[in-house]
Write a structure and sequence with these properties.
Blueprint (H helix, E strand, L loop, with lengths): L1 H8 L3 H9 L8 H17 L3 H14 L12 H15 L2 H14 L4 H11 L1
Helix pairs in contact: 1-2, 2-3, 3-4, 3-5, 4-5, 5-6, 6-7
Length: 122
């Protein structure tokens, strides 16, 4: 995971994806799920493969309730926020706004989602 984060910091999203695909549930079932979320995040930050990022996030969201983990995994408000950014990357601002509204509704203190909602609705 650390190597993937370092690669993302260097904007090497393909390398990050390679590292993330190698993560297994050997220690904790949450690790592969977190890797999946990070794979979506890398695509969103790179503004590439937004459709793949959306599908990764949808699958992540479906799997989240079934995973037994001690990890503090990103919740629905974070999922909706990231999905909104992916839809924005695709040019679907209307869907992005809907998802940001859901994110803020779930977590009223989520400043980044609120900021992005303000940015898209101004």
């Amino acid at each position: 995971m650390q190597l993937a984060v370092m690669a993302m910091q260097k904007n090497d999203y393909l390398k990050a994806d390679e590292y993330l695909l190698q993560i297994t549930a050997a220690e904790d079932a949450g690790w592969p799920l977190l890797a999946q979320y990070q794979r979506a995040k890398a695509r969103i930050l790179a503004k590439q493969d937004s459709g793949v990022a959306i599908n990764l996030l949808k699958d992540y969201q479906k799997s989240l309730p079934d995973v037994q983990t001690e990890m503090n995994l990103p919740d629905d408000s974070a999922i909706f926020w990231r999905m909104a950014l992916a839809y924005e990357n695709q040019g679907d601002v209307e869907q992005a706004i809907k998802l940001l509204q859901q994110s803020v509704k779930l977590n009223k203190e989520f400043e980044q989602a609120a900021h992005d909602l303000d940015r898209l609705t101004d």
